[in-house]
Queue: 2 jobs
Job 1
Amino acid sequence: ETGVTQTPRHLVMGMTNKKSLKCEQHLGHNAMYWYKQSAKKPLELMFVYSLEERVENNSVPSRFSPECPNSSHLFLHLHTLQPEDSALYLCASSQGGAQAGDTQYFGPGTRLTVL
Amino acid sequence: AQSVTQLDSQVPVFEEAPVELRCNYSSSVSVYLFWYVQYPNQGLQLLLKYLSGSTLVKGINGFEAEFNKSQTSFHLRKPSVHISDTAEYFCAVSDTGRRALTFGSGTRLQVQP
């Protein structure tokens, strides 16, 4: 595997389910990001991790819970989601410690549908 | 607070024609500027970025962009497009002191034969 991978690629869940999104980067980077891409809205930054420490949390509801066990893996745990949470969730990584100006490398995303 | 405006949501163009995708930003401090491309069913890929120095930035796939500080713009250009350039293009900005990227809403480039 190369680059940034995300699993699953598609996920359908009910509002009472608990699921997790997984992201893995094979680039030796130190920072990882979660973004939400909704239809007709700009990409929204959700969380940033630098060296496994959460350094940014953009007022994301608590039903989204990130986890970064090491610099190569990032998870997004989901519970009691709402239909408006349906979106493409993108993971990205960058080489430095999430510095301004760093190039971010994106995974293909997980298409989430909440019924 | 910073913001990014991509003035065109869709740009149809014929193959081998030139194209310009417009991006304007607002910020009270110095910025870094980026253009990313998203092909169908894929994540975003960096086309080019401006950090400092020459205001004309060349990127991959024959794209270039020019930073205009007085007009707070960072328009993307390509002199001759191909069918394979059909994709969504995103302009993004970050303050030089912050790590977060602010994205525009995207421009869908549709190249027609």
Job 2
Amino acid sequence: DIVMTQSPDSLAVSLGERASINCKSSQSVLYSSNNKNYLAWYQQKPGQPPKVLIYWASARESGVPARFSGSGSGTDFTLTINSLQAEDVAIYYCQQYYGTPPTFGQGTTLEIK
Amino acid sequence: QLVESGGGLVRPGRSLRLSCTASGFTFDDYAMHWVRQAPGKGLEWVSHISWNSGAIAYADSVKGRFTVSRDNAKNSVYLQMNSLRPEDTAFYYCVKDKIAAAEGRFDYWGQGTLVTVSS
């Protein structure tokens, strides 16, 4: 199975500042035939199910605010949240869908400083 | 919309059947998944079933004990859970895939149903 490791486990960022969450996969999730990274990011707020933010490492899902962006390729990825808002407090998960089983990172808790 | 049901408290070794009923989209155009989350813990994929039940897979942790199925006429997907263990205690989410094959792009999640395995 592909192991996904996120860092940090938690972080606190001031309102209006930038938050960055890293995700590393134990093997590449870049599919050479289509040059796509099979990597998604999800946001989970307390008491709610996860909500998808980004697919293909950098493609924002419809309706997701532009302050959320994804980058990276191969085994190293980053979710960046610009101009942090109070409603962004949540746990963020990366997930690979390159192989079965799909696997998640352990989650990163984002709080307001 | 995805609505799960069937969760509850069950003794170790017993069985439970979860159901998920979909609405608002053409159900038989999409693969479906079950993903679980132990209280206060992370996410674990459990199983998937493609649009026509042609492709089915399970996590190693549940293989041989859980069975996924779907009834497209009823817009429903099911998870039969046998020989339940305390470590199966979790919220179980029904999740829609982005496509008909089980690609693993989790598009929309139900609210979840809690399964508690305890004596």
